[in-house]
Amino acid sequence: MNNPFFINKGPFTIDKLLNLSDIKNPNNFKKSKILDIKDLLTSSKSNITFFHSKKYEKLAINTKASYCITTDNLKNYLPSSCKKIIVDNVLIATAKITKIFYPDSITDNFDTTVKDISKTSFKKKIIFGKNSLIGQNVKIGKNCSIGHNSIIEKNVIIGNNCSIGSNVIIRNTIIHNNVHILDGCVIGKKGFGFFPDKKNNFRYPQIGLVIINDNSEIGCGSTIDRGSMSNTIIGKNTYLDNQVHVAHNVKIGDNCIIAGQVGFAGSSTLGNHVMIGGQAGISGHLKIGNNVQIGGGSGVIKDIPDNSKVMGYPAKNLKDFIREGK
Fold this sequence. Notes:
The protein is mainly β and 326 residues long. It has 4 helices and 37 strands.
């Protein structure tokens, strides 16, 4: 889908793109026009992508991108149709190019277009509290409500029969039908993505969305970061308890139950029917299968296959955890 939140400043010719990013161009690439930067999976012809870890070799083999930022060690996994741009640090190079296409994605300044809901066309369509603010080009379906002191920023889409609590901030987000967002949530802000430097940390642009699917509930005080390159997704009929943090690019499946104070690091994927106990932590770039149960307080640092029950730190098979605790 087209991103309604950040304007693409492209196209750029590949030589200009590399020059603006201070990336060497030993192959003298210069004629091709690049329309956008995307991940390995969603890239198509006239896109540039990036490949920084062998973990994504299956995606790299099948990418449709015209150009790929990668390392000398990984270049041979890419198809011959994809021209390789070799760099020392793939993620920093990718961040620089993303910033050129989407310069507005670095900062998260407050939306200056918002108006009190009582001064908008929504005043006769939805139930609302005091001091609720709505930005430009917001779409809200039937039978919705918005609590006190909540802010729905520009371009946000909210479906039918949705309830937005008080003191909520929503931006860069698409919410489907029958979704409940409880008090104090912040949804769609930029993720915690940057590269440490001695003097000035280099911020990674966050150009993705948050998508919350039908019949889901987000508990009080929870935070859901928008995606960096892909989207952050909450599946259908998935319930998050209070004070859950979902980092950028995380994808949670359908019918999941996440208890309070669980934290997800970036780019991890959960299957369907996953249950996680309170205060568990899920490290980044992991794959959690279907029908998995994770005990409270566990620390998950590796992939978990379907139908597993785990607990502890590091999380291990529940029977092994109980046996070792005797």
